[in-house]
């Protein structure tokens, strides 16, 4: 007696005890099995995610959808009970008397004041969607799930910086409309100090200058501080072929000296 000859009710009972890989395989067998096992696949994935700590990163379906720009998959997962946290997981802070150390990530110098989560927290679905340039996923997570537009990924980048780094100009425009800060905002745990102290070299304008992206720079320069604009000018002056960006920054009121700046 083949599995395909089983009544639907019995197949559903079997699916309730099947593993996620098994459900995934069964749902791909034929149209009937897909209609039976695909909903169970999303439900079990959501249940597994809810049983894990928030630092685990949520359900596999949500993260897959955010990474690959599959809005319908994301919506199906949420309908099955998955959850998307509004904020990225906080880091565990070290005592105030611990030695502060510095690290550099893609030219960004940060002072470490905390201990990383063990194991390290994965990137939030919003960060994954921004990396991939999936504007519809980003819009859905910000509008429908009310995710924090200023969240920071495990590498220390804000979502606005991620959009700048990956050259997603339309996302930069959208994030600014949603009120994204142009500073790399340290993620704050109420029980301890901010996890990083970030210099002006970590702002979105400097990122855009490093990438020779004048269009993105024109979007973020209005919200940049004098210190950030002057830092960007120094970066542009040091870059090969940076003359055009230097002219752009000066034309937009960039002060060529750090004297008398905030």
Q: Describe it for me?
A:
There is one protein chain. The protein is mostly helical and 262 residues long. It is built from 13 helices and 5 strands. The strands form 2 sheets. A 3-stranded antiparallel sheet has the order 2-3-5, with no helix packed on it. Strands 1-4 form a two-stranded antiparallel ribbon. A hairpin with a 2-residue loop joins strand 2 and strand 3 (108-112). The protein is elongated. The protein starts with 7 loop residues before the first helix and ends in an 11-residue tail after the last helix. The relative contact order is 0.09. Mean pLDDT is 81; it is low at 91-100, 103-118 and 184-199.
What order do the helices and strands come in, and which of them pair?
Layout lengths: L7 H9 L3 H8 L3 H20 L9 H9 L2 H9 L12 E2 L7 E5 L2 E5 L1 E2 L9 H8 L2 H9 L15 H7 L3 H9 L18 E3 L5 H7 L3 H7 L5 H13 L4 H9 L11
Antiparallel strand pairs: 1-4, 2-3, 3-5
Helix residue percentage: 40-55%
Strand order of the largest sheet: 2-3-5
Give the ordered list of helices and strands: HHHHHEEEEHHHHEHHHH
Structural class: mainly alpha
Unreliable sequence segments: 91-100, 103-118, 184-199
Mean of all residue-level pLDDT scores: 81
Instruction: Bin the strand percentage.
Output: 5-15%
Radius of gyration: 23 Å
Tell me the span between the first and last alpha carbons: 79 Å
Largest sheet: 3 strands, antiparallel
Number of helices: 13
What global shape is seen? Answer: elongated
Q: Number of DSSP strands?
A: 5
């Amino acid at each position: 007696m083949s599995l395909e000859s089983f009544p639907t009710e019995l197949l559903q009972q079997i699916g309730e005890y099947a593993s996620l890989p098994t459900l995934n395989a069964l749902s791909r067998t034929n149209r009937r099995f897909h209609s039976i096992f695909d909903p169970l696949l999303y439900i079990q994935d959501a249940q597994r995610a809810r049983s894990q700590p928030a630092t685990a990163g949520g359900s596999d379906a949500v993260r897959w959808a955010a990474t690959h720009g599959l809005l319908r998959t994301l919506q199906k997962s949420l309908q099955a009970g998955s959850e998307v946290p509004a904020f990225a997981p906080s880091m565990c802070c070290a005592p105030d008397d611990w030695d502060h150390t510095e690290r550099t990530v893609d030219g960004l110098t940060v002072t470490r004041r905390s201990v990383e989560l063990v194991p390290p927290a994965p990137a939030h679905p919003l960060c994954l969607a921004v990396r991939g340039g999936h504007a519809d996923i980003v819009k859905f997570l910000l509008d429908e799930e009310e995710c924090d537009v200023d969240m920071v990924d495990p590498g220390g980048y804000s979502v606005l910086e991620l959009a700048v780094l990956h050259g997603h100009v339309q996302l930069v425009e959208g994030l600014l409309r949603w009120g994204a800060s142009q500073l790399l905002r340290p993620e704050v745990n109420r029980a301890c100090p901010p996890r990083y102290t970030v210099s002006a070299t970590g702002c979105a304008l400097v990122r855009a200058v490093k990438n020779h992206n004048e269009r993105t720079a024109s979007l973020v320069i209005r919200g940049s501080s004098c210190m950030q604009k002057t830092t960007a000018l120094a970066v542009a002056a040091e870059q090969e072929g940076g003359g055009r960006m230097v002219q752009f920054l000066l034309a937009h009121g960039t002060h060529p000296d750090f004297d008398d700046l905030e």
